[in-house]
Amino acid sequence: MLDLYELLARARGVSASELTVDEREQLWARALPLLWPGYERIAGSERADSEPIQIEPYDKRWPARFESWRQKLDPLLEPVARRIAHVGSTSVPGLAAKPVIDIGVGVVELGDEASYVPAIESLGVQLRSRDDEHRYFRPFAGRPRDVHIHVWVAGSAFERRHLLFVDYLRTSDGARGRYRAAKVAAAARWPDDRLAYTEAKSEVIARLMGEAEVWARATGWSVTARSGAR
To answer: What is the pTM of this model?
Structure first.
C-alpha cells in the first residue's frame, strides 16, 4: 500500500505523506480486499481512521484496563471464547504504545458471528471489519478509542503469531527497543493514517517474528503452555 501511495504521489508531484486523507482512504478501500482475503468493511462505521496517532510511554495502568475489559467480556463470551488475551503493545511492560488496549478473543467458529458480535457490541464496541482470519471491533463513533477487540480462531496460526510476538517482546530489551523505534518513526510520518502506520512497521515486525520463532523453538514456547492461558 505504501508503494501505491508513492506512485500516486509521484504523479501529483508531492510526497506520499502529502496525499489527502480522502485520497489515501480511497486507495485503501480498493486495495484491502486484495491484500486481506475476504476483507469487508462493515457499513455504518462512521469513525475515521484519520484520528491522530499518539505514542505514549508505557503506563502501568494498562494491565488493569485490560482486566476490566476481560471481566466484562468473560461472562458474555463464556460459551464461545476459548481465550481472552491482552495483546498488542500495551501488553508488553516497558513498551511505548498508543493508549489503546488490544484484546484477542479466540473462538471455535469464527463464522458464527451471532454467538459473539451482539455480545461485544453490547459493550459499545462496534464490528468494523471482517476477513478470512479475524474480526475487528472498535468503539462506536462518539466514544473514546480506548480498546480494540480482535476475534480469531482459537489455536489458529493467526492467533499464535499475535501471542508469540508479544511474549517474545516481553523477554528482549533489544527487540522492544527496535520495535519502539519503528513505532515512533511510523507515527511521525503517518500521524493521521492508522493503516499506513501499521504497514510502515511491517518490515521490522517480520524480522522480529523471525527472531521470535527461533526463541520459541529454543524455549519450548507454545500457545497452550504460555502463562495466562484461559
So the answer is: 0.91
